[in-house]
Amino acid sequence: MSDQVVAVLDWIAILCLLAGALLSLVAGVGLIRFPDLLSRMHTAAKPQVLGLLLVLVGIGIRLIPEETNVFNIGTLILVGLFQVVTVPVAGHIAARVAYRTGRVHADLIVRDELAERLAAKRRADGGGGPPETRA
Amino acid sequence: MNILWIAIGLLLGAAVLLGVTRMVIGPSILDRALSVDVLLASALTGIGAYAAFHRDPTVLPTLLVLSLLGFIGSISIAKFVARRPEEHVATPTEPPAPAPAPEEGGSS
C-alpha cells in the first residue's frame, strides 16, 4: 500500500476519532446541564453510542495498513453490536425504575401517556385492590 | 497531526471530568449509575484511541469485556433500586412528605 493511501486513511481515521471524542464531550456536558433524570438518560444513550461507533470505525480504518486480522475487525463489529443492542435496554430499564419509584419530575414532562394508561387500567380494573406498581 | 491526537485526549479528559462531577453531585443513585455508564463509555473511547494511536490491536478484547460489563452493571443497579422504593422518601431534593402515597409501596 502506497504512502499516500496510508496518509489518507490516517486522516479519515483521525477525523472519526475526533468526532467520537467530541460526542463523548457532548454527552458529558448534557449530563451536567440537563435538569432531569430522563433527559440525562437521553444524552447518555444517544451521543455516547454514536461517538463510540465513530471511534470503532476510526480504529478499524487505522488498523488497515497494519497486518489485517479478521479477528480484529470482528471484535470491533462485536463491540459496536453489543453497544447498540444493550444501551437502549439499559436506558429503558433505568427510566422505568425511575418512573415507577417516583423520581420523575412531573412538571418537566410535556405529556405523560404512561400515567394516562395506568389510570385507564386502574379504572378498568374497578379501582379495588392495590394498584400495580411493579418495577 | 500530533495536535489532533492531543485534542482527542483533552476532549476525552473533559468528558470524564464532567461525568465525575455528575457522579459527585447526582441527587439519586440512578443518576450516579447513569454517570458510571457514561464514564465507562468514555473509557471505551479512550482505550480505542490508544489502540488507534499505536496501531495496537491487542487491547480490543478489553473493549468487548467493558461494553458487556457496563450493561450488566447498569441493569443490576436499576434492579437494586427497584427492590427498595422507600429510599425515595429520604431523597433530600423533595420536601418531607407526610406519608408515602399508596402508589409507592407494594413492590414485589
Strand content of chain A: under 5%
Which stretches of chain A of 5+ consecutive residues score pLDDT under 50?
none
Element order, helices and strands of chain A? HHHH
Number of β-strand runs of chain B: 0
What profile does the largest beta sheet of chain A have? none
Q: pLDDT below 50 for ≥5 consecutive residues: which ranges of chain B? A: 104-108
Q: What's the oligomerization state? A: heterodimer
Q: If you compute it from the alpha carbons, what radius of gyration of chain A comes out, rounded to the nearest whole angstrom?
A: 22 Å
How would you briefly describe this protein structure?
Chain A is mainly α. Chain A has helices spanning 3-33, 37-63, 70-100, 113-124.
Overview of the molecule:
The complex is a heterodimer of chains A (135) and B (108). Chain A is mainly alpha-helical and 135 residues long. Helices cover 75% and strands 0% of the residues of chain A. Chain A is elongated and about 75 Å long. By secondary structure, chain B is mainly α. Chain B has a domain at 37-84. Chain B has 3 helices and no strands. Chain B is flat, with a radius of gyration of 19 Å. The interface between A and B is large, with 59 and 59 residues. Chain B: The chain crosses the membrane at residues 6-25, 34-53, 59-78. Chain B: InterPro entries: MrpF/PhaF-like.
